């Protein structure tokens, strides 16, 4: 059946398994808005800022394992969403961006919203195409989905001219055949086996697909059989943890601590990750975090089948499937915190209250230093982190995760400074009645930057420097802000208040916000 280009594109996405579109459309996307109206299988979610749309698509893709679409308005709209597309690309999340453009014949006039959309898209996309012909429009969409779902996951951006969207005579296209996932060579598996049998202390650094499902379970069996220590990337896209799952330590954020940690081992085996590097350069300090005296073994890259690699390694070690000890099936839940409301006590409260099968969106910044280790033995949950370092991810990521997994509680652990980048996500939480509890860690500052100011060797901080990192003049009232967006909120200034407010929020359906007032740095 013939239809217009927008209808053919949406039907192509639906046929390829795309079921959600996070949208902030404009005039050039009105044909897509109309096409969505008649297609109930595609859930259209309005986001009041493009960074919320792209961040939500990231959260959805991390949890669903399939892409969501975004619908963005020209280069300016795409530009507003770039930061969270940067994070998504670092997370290797499957996303299909549909970015409207002026009609092909209108570009010659250089209208006010004309821009180099491809130039904006390419640094944060793995695949970009600017459609030119109606007969290729739906095929371009199918190839965008195929590109996004190529292992381990990619950001694909399709630039969609308005005249192709409204022109009649298009029809949907089928998804092209997918390539098989590449397997690492047997020589690397043999090298990892030899290191584990050498008698030296070894570590395995897990990343990407190695931190979930069968790959993680296999890594746990290897650790129990050999005594190897398991680490994850400092900022994993998604890690399954808690309950009876394998204990995986997080590689420290600060370079000195990471090098000291890895320097204790004779060999570090890297599975599903890149070789770890410092997040930033510091004067006189190395950038690569594995010291020169440590043997670095690349078992599998993020683009190779890490599940196969770990299973092959386990087979060489004669570690049969199903033999991992599940003694931690009844994890410790922690005790009620006492004393002042500080990051340590806050972490203890969170660890005790995390419900079974929760999803944690972590943009707690300095708060994560206490939160991640404190929750290692909490009830089973998934933990999502700020993969690319572009702040403003936590709230949108929670939106996408909640839509991907509506039967699971999502807890957003959110620093106050970075929350101000995308507070519009609260409105989408309320509109969509999402099952999200947001915990704002309010220390009225960019606390991590107070730490970095001294680490970078920038000298002592005078009043003007301190003012640039201070959020207390005026103080941000998160309870009022949340309520203005339609999300009920409470404020906690003591441990007792936090426990009561957080428990109430987690137990309640729909979105809730708790603001925890913490000491500043």
Automatic annotation (TrEMBL):
<feature type="region of interest" description="Disordered">
    <location>
        <begin position="321"/>
        <end position="340"/>
    </location>
</feature>
<dbReference type="Pfam" id="PF02775">
    <property type="entry name" value="TPP_enzyme_C"/>
</dbReference>
<feature type="domain" description="Thiamine pyrophosphate enzyme N-terminal TPP-binding">
    <location>
        <begin position="3"/>
        <end position="108"/>
    </location>
</feature>
<dbReference type="InterPro" id="IPR012001">
    <property type="entry name" value="Thiamin_PyroP_enz_TPP-bd_dom"/>
</dbReference>
<dbReference type="InterPro" id="IPR011766">
    <property type="entry name" value="TPP_enzyme_TPP-bd"/>
</dbReference>
<dbReference type="InterPro" id="IPR045229">
    <property type="entry name" value="TPP_enz"/>
</dbReference>
<feature type="domain" description="Thiamine pyrophosphate enzyme TPP-binding">
    <location>
        <begin position="379"/>
        <end position="515"/>
    </location>
</feature>
<comment type="similarity">
    <text>Belongs to the TPP enzyme family.</text>
</comment>
<dbReference type="Pfam" id="PF02776">
    <property type="entry name" value="TPP_enzyme_N"/>
</dbReference>
<keyword id="KW-0786">Thiamine pyrophosphate</keyword>
<protein>
    <submittedName>
        <fullName>Acetolactate synthase large subunit</fullName>
    </submittedName>
</protein>
């Amino acid at each position: 059946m013939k239809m217009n280009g927008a209808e053919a594109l949406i039907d192509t996405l639906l046929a390829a398994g795309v079921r959600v579109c996070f949208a902030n459309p404009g005039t050039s996307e009105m044909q897509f808005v109309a096409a969505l109206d008649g297609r109930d299988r595609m859930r259209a979610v309005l986001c009041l800022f493009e960074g919320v749309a792209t961040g939500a698509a990231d959260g959805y893709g991390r949890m669903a394992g399939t892409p969501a679409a975004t619908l963005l308005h020209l280069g300016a709209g795409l530009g507003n969403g770039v930061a969270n597309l940067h994070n998504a690309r670092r997370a290797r999340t499957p996303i299909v961006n549909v970015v409207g453009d002026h009609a092909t014949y209108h570009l010659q006039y250089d209208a006010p919203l004309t821009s180099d959309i491809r130039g904006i898209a390419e640094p944060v996309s793995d695949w970009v195409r600017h459609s030119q012909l109606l007969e290729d429009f739906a095929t371009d969409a199918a190839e965008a989905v195929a590109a996004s779902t190529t292992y381990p996951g990619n950001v694909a951006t399709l630039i969609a001219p308005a005249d192709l969207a409204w022109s009649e005579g298009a029809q949907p296209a089928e998804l092209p055949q997918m390539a098989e996932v590449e397997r690492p060579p047997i020589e690397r598996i043999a090298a990892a086996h030899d290191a584990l049998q050498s008698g030296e202390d070894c570590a395995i650094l897990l990343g990407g697909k190695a931190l979930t499902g069968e790959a993680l379970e296999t890594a746990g069996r290897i650790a129990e059989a050999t005594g190897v220590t398991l680490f994850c990337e400092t900022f994993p896209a998604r890690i399954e943890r808690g309950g009876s799952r394998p204990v995986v330590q997080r590689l420290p954020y600060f370079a000195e601590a990471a090098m000291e940690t890895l320097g204790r081992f004779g060999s570090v085996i890297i599975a599903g990750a890149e070789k770890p590097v410092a997040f930033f350069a510091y004067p006189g300090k190395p950038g690569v975090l594995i010291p020169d005296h440590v043997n670095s073994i690349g078992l599998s890259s993020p683009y190779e089948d890490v599940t196969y690699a770990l299973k092959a390694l386990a087979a060489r070690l004669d570690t049969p499937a199903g033999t991992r000890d599940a003694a931690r099936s009844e994890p410790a839940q922690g005790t009620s915190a006492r004393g002042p409301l500080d990051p340590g006590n806050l972490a203890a409260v969170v660890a005790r209250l995390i419900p079974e099968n929760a999803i944690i969106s972590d943009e707690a910044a300095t708060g994560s230093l206490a939160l991640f280790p404190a929750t290692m033995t909490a009830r089973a949950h998934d933990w999502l982190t700020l993969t690319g370092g572009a702040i403003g991810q936590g709230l949108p990521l929670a939106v996408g995760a909640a839509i991907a997994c509506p039967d699971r509680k999502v807890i957003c652990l959110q620093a106050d400074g970075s929350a101000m980048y995308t507070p519009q996500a609260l409105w989408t939480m309320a509109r969509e009645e999402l099952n999200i509890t947001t915990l704002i860690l309010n220390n009225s500052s960019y606390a991590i930057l107070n730490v970095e100011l001294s680490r970078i060797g920038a000298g002592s901080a005078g009043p003007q420097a301190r003012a640039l990192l201070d959020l207390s003049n005026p103080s941000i009232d998160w309870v009022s802000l949340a309520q203005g967006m339609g999300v009920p909120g409470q404020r906690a200034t003591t441990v007792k208040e936090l426990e009561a407010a957080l428990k109430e929020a987690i137990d309640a359906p729909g979105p809730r916000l708790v603001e925890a007032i913490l000491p500043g740095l």
